[in-house]
Design goal:
This protein is of the alpha+beta class and about 200 residues long. About 45% of the residues lie in helices and about 10% in strands.
Length: about 200
């Protein structure tokens, strides 16, 4: 059973309400990507300080979140993008463009909720999240070793999921795309085996 931190659950609830609001206004469903999606899939064992969201409604989403207690960054050294929630300590930043630059199969996006009463939020398929982590690792292996570790953790969790079986053909194709053919599912599987044995 996953044990998510309170701040993560509360932030998801606020995001779910904001997402529902902008969808009612005619925008496409936003999708949570990046570290927050990893936190969801790992049941909170990997923690992220922010939520990256893919949406075509940046301004509308930020306004909906501000109405729910988020604020724009201010003061010396503050980044002038996104919003943050002062009591939850979680920021939200919009990632522009299509989901994984249009390479992901949007039909695989999952709708999830961490409570029985709330609106759902969307996260990419675990295969897309694994491929994303592999792509970031490939871009700079020396600096992004943590991305390979995250890909391994996600892969090992996904292999155990009997409810939503891992689509290895799709995963292999997505890893190849995100790494421009440098890495494959075979490489990831071997690294996962090495990590398990060590």
């Amino acid at each position: 059973m996953a044990t998510y931190r309170t701040e993560f659950v509360e932030a998801l609830k606020l995001l779910a309400g904001a997402f529902a609001e902008i969808m009612r206004a005619g925008h496409k469903r936003p999708v949570i990507v990046g570290g927050a999606a990893v936190e969801f899939y790992t049941g909170g064992s990997i923690v992220s300080g922010d939520f990256d969201v893919v949406t075509d409604a940046t301004r509308e989403l930020e306004e909906a979140l501000i109405a729910r207690g988020f604020r724009r960054p201010s003061g010396a050294g503050a980044l002038l993008r996104g919003v943050f929630h002062p009591s939850l300590g979680i920021g939200v930043e919009v990632v522009s463009g299509e989901l994984f630059d249009g390479a992901a199969d949007e039909a695989r996006v999952r709708l999830v909720t961490l409570d029985t009463e709330g609106e759902p939020v969307a996260v990419p398929a675990v295969e897309d999240m694994i491929a994303d982590r592999m792509g970031q690792f490939c871009a700079n292996p020396a600096a992004h070793g943590e991305m390979l570790t995250q890909a391994i953790v996600l892969y090992r969790i996904a292999k155990l999921d009997v409810e939503t079986p891992l689509d290895e053909d799709y995963l292999d194709q997505r890893i190849g795309y995100e790494t421009a053919g440098t890495y494959s599912l075979r490489f990831l599987s071997e690294k996962a085996d090495e990590a398990h044995d060590s």
